[in-house]
Design brief:
heterotrimer, A mainly alpha (539), B mainly alpha (333), C mainly alpha (128), B: mainly alpha, Fumarate Reductase Cytochrome B subunit, 4% strand, C: 128 residues, two-stranded antiparallel ribbon, 2 strands, elongated
Chain lengths: 539, 333, 128
Amino acid sequence: MSDDMPKPEQLAQISYGPPPKNWMDNPVKFRTGTFNYSANPDSARYVDFPYPRKWMPMEDDWQLPENWQEIILNGLKDRLNKYRTLRVFMDICVRCGACADKCHFFIGSGDPKNMPVLRAELLRSVYRNDFTTAGKILGKIAGARKLTVGVLKEWFFYFFQCTECRRCSVYCPYGIDTAEITMMVRELLNLVGLNIDWITTPVANCFRTGNHLGIQPHGFADSLEFAVDELEELTGVRVEAPINRKGAEILFVAPSADYFATPHYYTLLGYLALFHEIGLDYTWSAYASEGGNFGLFHSAETMKRLNNKIYAEAKRLGVKWILGGECGHMWRVLHQYMDTINGPADFLEVPKSPLTGTVFENTKSTKMVHISEFTADLIKHDKIKLDPSRNDHWRITYHDSCNPARAMGLLEEPRYIINKTCNNFFEMPENTIREQTFCCGSGSGLGTDENLEMRLRGGMPRGNAARYVRDKHGVNICLCMCAIDKATLPAVMDYWAPGVEIGGVHEMVGNALILKGEKERDTDLRGTPLVGKEGTGDV
Amino acid sequence: MRAVFSLAVVIILVLIAQVGAGSAGMRYLLGVIIPYIAMAVFLIGMVYRVIKWARSPVPFRIPVTCGQEKSLPWIKSSKLDNPHTTLGVIGRMALEILCFRSLFRNTKTELRKGPTLTYGSSKYLWLGALVFHWSFLIIFIRHFKYFTEPIPSFVLLAQNLDGFFQVGLPIVYITDILILVALTYLLFRRLLDAKLRYISLAGDYIPLFLIGGIAVTGVLMRYFTKTDIVAVKQLAIGLVTFSPVGADVLGQISSIFFIHIFLVSVLFIYFPFSKLVHLGGVFLSPTRNLANNNRMERHVNPWDYPVKVHTYEEWEDEFRDVMKAAGLPLDKE
Amino acid sequence: MYDSGKIISGLIIFLIIATAPIWYTAASGGTTKGPEPEIITTEKQCVRDTDYMRHDHMELLNEWRDQVVRGDDRVYTTASGRKFEKSLSNTCMSCHPNKSEFCDRCHNYMGVDPYCWSCHIEPKGGSR
């Protein structure tokens, strides 16, 4: 964390009172720490994004193509004709304000344009001006305004200040989904080459190598090999981590951070231990080595281009069905988009747990099962032996990640697993969990260092809730099932709720899981000594 | 500013009708011609609006889920807040449309010293909105008595229930009071909450003042400056039988009625071009009206098109050497 | 996905409801001819002028009731100086005994159900 970052008490000096000026007359300011840098032109070129160039958001001249207005307005027209959501959401908002204080960015910044309603008005005002009779005739009095460079800059600033978490949509009487509007505007910005690098470069990497981090197949194999070695050291059991193995029953796909970043890594160890213990006939894939999909944060087309690898690989390897790891936006894509964009998956079979015989009827078309569904089923059928006391050094809370909560409703499975693998579980306040959960503040491609102030502001509600259970119950770890959470919540917790670490649900499974032939376990998967084993391990 | 502008617009409308009611020709315009135009604009406008929405497809199934999904048989799923069946969706939509389910969830966020964030339940908006909309609906149904002869029993029932307490003479309708209270709340909420004032457009105040004007003139006519309601009904029946009444009947009606019907006409004309189209839009919101059966049934995108992908073959070609060195299986040696 | 079937059905339902009075009135044969209360009295003048009585008779009756019941004030003097007993049964119904042809015509037309008859005895058979 940089030294010039204000202290939490200072950052929390927030006024929710809007400025006196009309919002239309209040141009955007690109202040260091509150926005993301532009896309590297090489990455943009690699995936054929339009108008790749060197430019920076804080510069005056964005080097827009000459007919940029025409491009955007045509793009908007095109999307109005392709998405009922966009058309309906442009027309029916009554500005009741129910969404206003639901956005973590508004709560953390007080900037009125972070109220979901006003964020949408940024687009709606242009829609009125060019696509509605009232707006054409009455102009500003009808809430319409021309698309100018100033408006475009506002779009860039505020639509890359929305994490597409959909919390506002839960409270909207019409279900207006700001994520959908943000997606549309980001697509429009892309048409004139206004992308951010933290989306574009991972997309280019993923398109080329198969994962966001750009890890090539041998690097991927090395990572897994390393994890296997480490797991052996911790448990005394040597597991297999097969890659690109044809004829396996199940293809396993996880977000790439799981095998390359901490604390994700401990979740990976958890998966490996679990799959070994139950003797799962599965394979990893170096080609489909990414479950996440930063294409979702760019455009429907890019999402489809990246997602394509999963079904293609399942088909090539001849597996029966697909199992997916812990990730948030990955599951938005898998649950709500994959079957539509790259299905039908008629070459696969309806997923059936080889251990319990449970047929996952809820996945009979997409044929992809979430690992927490799979594991909850195993535990329910007593297929694994667990020693929850091995997690006694953790006092746990659980953060529902936005997409599993509000795009799936995967609420009980992780809680069931946590309760079976841990003894000390405490929920955060009810308005901050389940469908009302707060975003980490860094989702949808905004998790960069240059954007740190805004991320911490956005992370304030989550950090606050975690601090509450830390103070009340002594919570020292917050579990989650999202790679972006695991990557970015540590900074949020260090800032707002120091002492709360971040972990994964399958990390706890890995800790509690009694492996056949394991050595005496002195530490958890992190190497932290277990309760009663302090000082005995050779950590 | 925008509130003042909107109030001025409605006052001007009132004055136009007030002046117009003074001449027989204008009475015909206000009482017959404009209501016909308003009805036509409203019906055609709403149908046009809905068809325009409907012509854009729903490419993806993107319900916002607000409870446990349907997954393993031993996990209880939330059938209404996260429906996976059509019946569940109907239930969810009914709760949304009849009970304003989502607004019921509303919370108020407060930042206190610490810094500590709190989220208190906040049901005032839900209550105000629900009272307003239900009152409006019941008043709307009650008005069918002017357009029907004999009056259908459900209209009489609505009227009798509305006057259940038998207070005052003529008996006070509960909805007459409730709608005025609710409108006042909705207006002052917008004016007094700085955030709301900031986001409000003229288009947010106009409906409040317009409907307020309609309610006030209606209340005045019923309880204070009475008009010849038999003549009003003759006028209304004339409209729906396409045999409009003449100057004899129009002449018996007091001018306040013409203000009332003119404001109603303006509301109907304004409706399809304003945020009031949420009346239709609420049915068409894909985040609410789709079942969360995403992985159970395939959803088809009508404009789906092939995209450029990085195939396995190309990928293996690019990384064959390193894969070979790492001992990874290859399709082509 | 368009769901055009559902949307068109919805629109048709909307149009039917919105235009229901047209169909209903056409079916019931409703016309602009208003109710015609039969006046069978030979009196030339009511206690107030016709226009007032048309709009406000209920107010007058209400006043009478309050004055009689609460103030024992039973005499009403018209503008022209004639005196009447403040009584629905004895004064009003002496000229208008035909409830079903007089009172009910307009009340039914307007869907009004006054609570006069929850205390007063309803005259039998429209008694001409």
